[in-house]
Each structure stands twice: as C-alpha cells, then as structure tokens.
Design brief:
The chain has 7 helices and 10 strands. The chain is an alpha/beta fold and about 270 residues long. The protein has a domain of about 190 residues: Metallo-beta-lactamase, Chain A, CATH 3.60.15.
Length: about 270
C-alpha cells in the first residue's frame, strides 16, 4: 500500500500539507490494512485540516474499506488536533495513551496487541519526545511506526525537562527491538521512511551522546544559562526553532543534574 509513494504492504501514507521547521514535509498519516480485509486502522490523523482529513477518509472508502479505529502516537496537535473531526467523519473511535486525546476510545498499554480485522499491531511505549509517546510494531511487515520518536531526517525534540533519560532508554529499547523482530522499515511521523533501522537508531544514540558532551563542554567553559549554551552548541540556529533547542538544552542539563554532573549555579 503506497498512497503517497512510500510505505509497505500493509501501510500507506497520506501526507498532510503542513510543512514547517518542526513538521518537516508535513505530518504523515498512516493507513494500515491487512491485505484483503475491510477494516482499516489510521495512525495520527493530523491537525484540523478538513481537506486532509476528508482525503484520508475518502482514500479508505475508495479502497472499499472502513476505518475501524484511529491510533495516535502522542499528544502533539500536529498529530491529534483533527482527531475529533476525523472520528465524526468515520464513526471510528480514537485510542491514545493520554485520556484527553481519546475520542470514544480506550487507552494504549505497553505490549498490548491490537487485532484490527486480522492486522496485528503491537504497542511499544517509547516515552521521551513526550511522556505519552508510543510506537507501533507491524511484525507482518517487519515495520515500525515511530511517531516523533524517530523522524525521517533530523532529530526529535525532547518535550519536557525530564524527558531525556526515558528517551535514551527508549532509543536503546528500539534498537534491541529492531534486532529481535528483524525490523526492516521505520515509518516516521514526519519525513521519509527509513530502510536502515539499526543505522538510524545508532545515529540517534550517537547524536544524543555527542550533544551531552557538548553541553558538558559548555558548562566546563563557564556558561551558566540556557541561552548562553544554545549560542555555543547551536551557533547557526534559526530563530523559529530556538524554543525547541531551549527545551532540548534544559532536558540535557536536567539529565546531567540528576547524575550529579552539573555544578551549582547552572540554570536547569
């Protein structure tokens, strides 16, 4: 199933036209379906863009199928804002970790296996980007839907000062899962699919470790505020993504502070 030119046998993408510094080419709305089945699962309907949401619903109808349920990978509006309208269009419930993101649906639990008309989807808790982030394993396709935990290019933002430790744990968990289930494809919430999952995860882990070393170096050079550290670690940053950089720096400072690596007087 390759709706917008990328996907797997059971997963097709409808790209939302909401490109930007934080959304890359736009939000990837994934349509999941067991071959020959009528029931469809939609992952991350996207923002409240009625044309996009109607296109997703129409795409399912044109396949002679019906949306059985919607799942969301995490609470951010570019993945969930359109959930209620999409539920009204399709009559399907929206399931999410965060109760506020549900629309007539239930929660999602780590390790839970969802059976949608023969399509098996395993929920993998991956907190860090947000505390409610999850990935979805399509074992039959050796594929993993990663939301914003792993992006098609670039790196993700840590939303919350205490998110880096669980995020690192999530990356290591995903790397082990990729090997255990022989995952061949990562289907991200933004950007193109990734066909070298182990290399992508190694890159993410190496990037985070490198950033931590840069933060240690900035602190060791006597910098004491988040803004000073941003100027040193991200010298070419554009203004529009500076708040995201500030969030990541605070997360890294908090990570170091919990480990006793941060001197007194450092803003965290």
């Amino acid at each position: 199933m390759r709706i917008d030119g990328s996907g797997t046998l059971r997963a097709g993408c409808v790209l939302c036209p909401n490109p930007g510094p934080m959304t890359l080419e736009g939000t990837n709305t994934w349509i999941l379906r067991e071959p020959g089945a009528r029931g469809v699962v939609v992952v991350d309907p996207g923002p409240h863009d009625e044309r996009h949401l109607e296109r997703v619903a129409r795409t399912v109808q044109e396949q002679g199928a019906q949306v059985q349920m919607t799942l969301v990978t995490h609470r951010h509006f570019d993945h969930t804002e359109g959930s209620r309208y999409f539920s009204e269009l399709t009559g399907a419930p929206v399931h999410a970790v965060d109760p506020e993101m549900r629309v007539g649906g239930a929660g999602l639990e780590d390790g839970q296996v969802i059976d949608a008309d023969g399509l098996l989807i395993r929920v993998i808790a991956t907190p860090g980007h947000t505390d409610d982030s999850v990935c979805f394993l399509l074992e039959a396709d050796n594929a993993l839907l990663t939301g914003d935990t792993i992006l098609g290019h670039g790196t993700t933002v840590i939303d919350g000062d205490d998110g880096l430790a669980p995020y690192m744990d999530s990356l290591y968990r995903l790397r082990a899962l990729v090997e255990e289930y022989r995952v061949r494809t990562l289907l991200p919430g933004h950007g193109p699919i990734l066909t070298s999952p182990s290399a992508a995860l190694d890159s993410y882990i190496d990037h985070r470790e490198s950033r931590l070393e840069q933060i240690r170096g900035a602190v060791g050079a006597g910098l004491t505020t988040v803004e000073e550290i941003i100027d040193r670690v991200y010298p070419d940053i554009v203004l529009s993504v500076r708040p995201a950089a500030a969030s990541s720096v605070r997360a890294q400072l908090r990570y170091l502070a919990v480990r006793g690596e941060l001197p007194q007087g450092i803003e965290s």
